[in-house]
Amino acid sequence: MDPNSVQDISDEEEEKRVKKTTWLQTLAPYPAEPSAGTKFMVQLKDVASGSQVIPLIEFPIEVAEPILEQEIREKEFNKDKDGFVLQKVSPDPTHINWVKLRAGISFHFSQDIDSIGSIETTGQNVRVEQSSLGTDRVTIVFGGVTAWDSMLIWVGGLVIFLPLWFIYFVQSWASRRENLILQHETGPVGGGIQLYFAGAFSFMPLTSDVVVPNADVEQRSRIALWGLMAPACFSLLIWSLWLQVPDSRILFVSDAFLIFPMVQCFPLNPLEGIYVWRRSKLLWFLTFIFIMTLFMIVASAGLKSVI
């Protein structure tokens, strides 16, 4: 919804406006969210009730860490003032995280609102996604914006690409030890899926199929284990470094190297886990438990500190 002209409109018209998104937002499976630590200012201009107008209302907001909270805190203003004034903001902008930003902040006034000139944001990559006008309040829904020059897009895309090459070189080395030749194959469907996710800036662990002609069950299992355990152990090493140097970029690298073996360890053809499964169910189970336990530890830290 365009916040530059906020009027009292029907539910059908509001829904129609909300659905007007760019092609990139439509393609992207995961929209950007304002992360913890993001600071911005929301400005409500020319809030009118009859002949009374509030020229400008400004609120600084810093996004907090996501927490489980049952109570919705409110912030009250101008309790003893008469006339047309802002009376309450819910939830309290000083205790807000991105989940609440997505649900919306409501600004309650002492009188009915006729119109608002504009709603704007200034600061770090946050925009107004939707605004709806009630009888005596306006509710604003916020969303994140990833700029085209963002390091997340360009450096993040490079970082998430490195584990694929790492796995390739490790498995290529393991194949040469077995006097075998390693081949990577990507079919038309798989290639199209990878291009889709790359175009949507979603870092998905879609890899080429690993083919090792003339390998027996044990040889193929050993090559698969190298492809699973090497990036997982490297991820553990980077995660240990992050514990000493708590930089979210280091944690992102750790997550990048772990997400590939997490997907590949399942015993489904053509994932690498199927070749370990065919050799030994117990060996596959131990490998699966190790990678998934590591994923729950490292990815949980990543969800809290990076995303």
Explain the overall architecture.
The protein is α+β, with helices and mostly antiparallel strands and 307 residues long. The protein has helices at 11-18, 23-27, 98-103, 151-177, 188-199, 217-244, 248-264, 273-279, 281-305; strands spanning 39-49, 52-62, 75-76, 86-90, 105-109, 115-123, 126-133, 137-144, 183-185, 209-211. The protein has a five-stranded antiparallel beta sheet with strand order 3-4-5-8-7. Strand 1 and strand 2 form a beta hairpin. The radius of gyration is 26 Å and the shape is elongated. The relative contact order is 0.10. Residues 1-7 and 17-31 have low confidence and may be disordered.
Name the helicity range: 40-55%
Straight-line N-to-C gap: 25 Å
> How would the global form be characterised?
elongated
Number of H/I helices: 9
- What gyration radius follows from the Cα positions, in whole Å? 26 Å
Please list the strands of the largest sheet in the order they lie side by side.
Answer: 3-4-5-8-7
Q: Count of DSSP E strands? A: 10
Q: Characterize the largest beta sheet: strand count, sense, and whether it forms a barrel.
A: 5 strands, antiparallel
List the domain count as a whole number.
2
SSE string: HHEEEEHEEEEHEHEHHHH
Percent strand:
15-25%
Stretches where pLDDT is under 50 for at least 5 consecutive residues are 1-7, 17-31
The residue-averaged pLDDT reads 77
The chain-level structural class is alpha+beta
